[in-house]
Structures are given as structure tokens and as C-alpha cells.
Hints:
Bound molecules: zinc ion
Oligomer: single chain
Amino acid sequence: MHEMALSRSIADxxxxxxxxxxxxxxxxxxxxxxxxxxxxxxxxxxxxxRGSDLDGAALRVNRIPAVLGxxxxxxxxxxxxxxxxxxxxxxxxxxxxxxxxxFLVRALEVD
Length: 111
Ligand SMILES: [Zn+2]
């Protein structure tokens, strides 16, 4: 499962950054454009860390809204018709993703 693989990468990063300290919580940013279901991710995380050195560490998921920048009219809009990415102001398909593709470990809470 996709979310299980993601949980494993998060755990790897958390272990590296914790440097042996006990981890209470891991906070991650997940862009809206990522094909990630936060509930599923949290479930996978709980299964993955159970009985490991990260047992009990909570996973906090921040959803980052998608924002598109239009190269045609310059507007910044939020896509309403995902996964179709067009400008919300002029409907041009020539847009760049300003945010929404994040997937990163933002913070760790350690003892
Ligand atoms: Zn536009």
C-alpha cells in the first residue's frame, strides 16, 4: 500500500532526526494534490510503529491547500475540479503549481 511506504519513509526520517531521543509526535505537511488519504496514512503509521522504537509516536498531518499560478493572466487560484488543473480566473490550462505538492516532515516532538 502507498500509505504504508510513505509511513516507512516518515519513520526513517523521524529516526534520523531524533538521534536516539524518544519521539512523541511527528508532524508532516501533505499537499492536497498528493494522492494521500490522511486517515489511511495515520492507520498505517499506527500499525507500522507498534512495538518499534517509535511506538506511541503520534502522526499529525497538515493538509496544504493547492494553489495554482496562471501563466496567462497571473491569477492565483485554488483548483475546484481536481485533478483537472486550470486557472480559476480565466480557465487557461497553462498553470504552475504554487503549493499542494508538499510531502515533508515539518517537525518532531521528542523527549
Ligand atoms: Zn488565468
